[in-house]
Amino acid sequence: MERTELPKVGFVGAGNMAEALVGGMRAAGWPGDRIAVTNRSNRARLASLAAQYGVLAFPEKRQLCDHAEVLVLAVKPKDVAEAVSQLQPHVRPHHRVFSVVAGLTLARLEEAFPGLPVVRAMPNTPSAVREGVTAYALGRHASGRDAELARVLFGSVGAVVEVPEERIDLVTGLSGSGPAYVFFLVESLIEAGVRAGLAPEVARDLVVQTVFGAARMLRETGEDPAELRRRVTSPGGTTMAGVGALEEHGVRGALVEAVRRATLRARELAS
User: Fold this and answer.
1) CA 222, CA 218: separation in Å to the nearest integer?
2) Element (H, E) at 50
3) Whole-angstrom distance, CA of residue 51 vs CA of residue 127
4) Helices and strands, number each (H, E), in the chain
5) What is the set of domains in the chain, with CATH numbers?
6) Comparing C-alpha atoms, which of 1, 62, 169 is closest to residue 71?
7) What is the pTM assigned to this prediction?
8) Which neighbouring-strand residues pair with 120?
9) What is the full DSSP assignment across 165-227?
10) How far is residue 12's CA from residue 61's CA, in Å, rounded to a whole number?
11) What is the pLDDT of residues 14-63, one digit of tens each?
């Protein structure tokens, strides 16, 4: 999508995910006068985002709708009803609505904004450092251009994949919540290093770089993780002993169960 084709985007909500997307879009070359933000009441937050990223800040949703062509719902789930009711009087046929709100289904979006193209997306928190991954699903009225726009917008903060909507809750449980699982493992490895006698800062440096390096190997080689694990696991060696302990303590099963429970919770929120 050429720079001149980039639409005006308005964020309803000015939290961490909205900031991550705004920062990514600006870094990718999106003009500041084509990005706007609004929130419920925190004017200082709006002023801060406007100053930091060179974007527009509107105190009223009417102003945002007048300016933007794409409205991105980026509020907390508990605030969706209020945000939607405030947008509805000002939404026009030329608008399209994207949502990054967990549990907000395409059906509910289409009910709230009849006839408009809607897109449901699930980015994750590494979007804040432009290493996120976003899955998106298209509503009934969305076109190929909407899909392209989703790839461009969310591609500014990482990888993008399209999935059927019935898989979005699974995406939420896997990659949406996934960074927390990785952070949990990193916490545990650091604790293990400290218990063994390393200084906390040394243990942290070792673990963080190990995780980063392993992830980069996976991405750049494209190889199966089981094969990469096999290569470093020499028979009778240290890695085999460590992996054996992971298997004995059911770490694989615990991770599978974590994804299952998070997915179920996402479905509960959607219902």
Assistant:
1) 6
2) helix 43-53
3) 21
4) 12, 8
5) 3-164 (3.40.50.720), 178-270 (1.10.3730.10)
6) 62
7) 0.89
8) 99, 137
9) GGGHHHHIIIIISHHHHHHHHHHHHHHHHHHTT--HHHHHHHHHHHHHHHHHHHHHH---HHH
10) 8
11) 999 999 999 999 998 899 999 999 998 888 999 999 999 999 999 999 99
